[in-house]
Amino acid sequence: MGLAISILGLASLAFGQATCQLGRVDTFTPFDVSDATTPYRSSNGVNTGWVPALYGPDLGAGSNSESAVAGGAAHLADGQAVAAGSNISGGPNGVTPLCADGSLPAAGVCADHSTPTIGVALISMSAGHRYYNSGTAQTTVQRLNTFLNQRNKYSFLDFLVTPADRVDFTGAPVDTTYTVNPQVTFVDCGEEARDLADDPTYVGWANNLDWNDSTTPSPWWVCANVRVPNYSVRQKSTQAVTAKQIQVVEMYETMGLGALYQTILPLSNLKGKACTAANIDGGSGPVIFACDTAYYLGQALRNLKAGFPNVQMAFLDSMYYQGYARTNVQGPPCDYEHAFGVKKVIEAQIAQTANGGAVQDTISGDLCYKAPCPNGEIPVVPYIDWGMYAWAQGTAVPNASGLTWAQGVGSGYCPARAVADFNTADGCLHESTTGTAPGTTQRPPNGQSKLSRQSWLFYKNNADTIDGDGLTAFFAPAP
Question: Do residues 31 and 351 make contact, with C-beta atoms less than 8 angstroms apart?
């Protein structure tokens, strides 16, 4: 869920209603520590009709109350089976090491002489690319250690391969006994400043290309064909992970809306009603951020197989706190409400499967992952579920993982504050990699290490096959 800056200032609003607010700490309880009975109330106190914890992100270990929604228990069972390598009838084949050409090895040996691996790709714009490897573009095959030497410490890839560098939200060492399965290859697939919404008014894009455009060199193909070979499989320097080996995708995405930031609105403007076509980019309005999130994520998910033909699972991350940002981005409550857009997509897939494959949500669209599908089609998307939950209410209320976002000392917008979890140089838009101690670098806690920790916790917690998605492929037994 990377972030894109708009260089356009706030203008008078087309709908005469409040946009997302910036430069303040909001008053919302984090999504994953709210209860299942209190409806969510947005910026003006209007009951939106959304019940936060009916189905939400991780509550401690596992995928929490997925069984609380109709069809949720069956959906979770499918996810557990796929993650454990089992095929689903009419659907995903199960996560298991594949050869470079996408074929299954015979007795562990690939006919193309490649080393089989489970490819796991983060698809993200700048924020996610940064927490994976501090924003350094990787377009060539490299040994993993060489790759990591080009990044700051405490990136997510560093967490995976360097136990001594795994830290909690205070910077203390943690989880040093876990071993990541050597058959898994994590890769950074950041598309960097590419516009999910294809907004031609945003000056910052060199090419106003559409995520849904399958022609080269659209952002999708930049991601799929360039960003994947960024380090070698199991330190085999001659072999990069290939697009055909990617089976799991973690999507840390939002849309870059350019001029639409002037009129993007929170859920309270729906006054408790459901999203309609009027509430998405290009509609008659009001344009609601959570509705737009669900709309564009649905489109992006339907394009996953174009880049990664063997993708089996996709996990959707939520946006981090944007209340300190100086630039005109998705501040509270829209940063918080991004998780409702994610929730809408996941529930749309659950509902579609539970209702014989017929599309149930016209905003998210067709999300069929196993037969039957509409008109007898081949499943169009992988299995979808929650990824990491990155939002927390500034410094006031930690989320269930203990995460908070620090603004540092001082007052005013980000440039007036000391370095904390966000970069002062870009107006607190991106997470910091420099640490909290004055004059130091690469010292946790910082924004990068906090996002790395959240992603680590997601993969670790979901290795629990009892209440998680059974991602047992990601961790080998502790030494």
Answer: no
Gap between the Cα atoms of 10 and 340, Å rounded: 25
The residue with tokens 């994590």 is: 186
Q: How far apart are the first and last CA of the chain?
A: 34
pLDDT in tens, 28-45: 888 888 777 788 877 667
**Residue 59: both structure tokens together:** 């509550």
Domain residues of the chain, as ranges? 31-476
Phi and psi, residue 124, nearest 5°: -155, 160
Q: CB-side exposure of 357: number of CA atoms within 13 Å?
A: 16
User: Which of 9, 5, 116 has its CA nearest to residue 473?
Assistant: 116
With 0-12 / 13-18 / 19 or more C-beta atoms within 10 angstroms meaning exposed / middle / buried, residue 90 is: middle
- 346: buried, middle or exposed (CB in 10 Å: 19+, 13-18, 0-12)? buried
Asked if residue 436 has pLDDT above 70, the reply is no
Per the DSSP assignment, residues forming a β-bridge with 47 are 41
Q: Is the distance from CB of 302 to CB of 320 less than 8 angstroms?
A: no
Q: 79: helix, coil or strand?
A: helix
**Cross-strand partners of 179:** 476
Tens-digit pLDDT profile for residues 111-153: 999 999 999 988 887 788 778 875 555 555 555 555 555 556 7
SS3 at position 117: strand
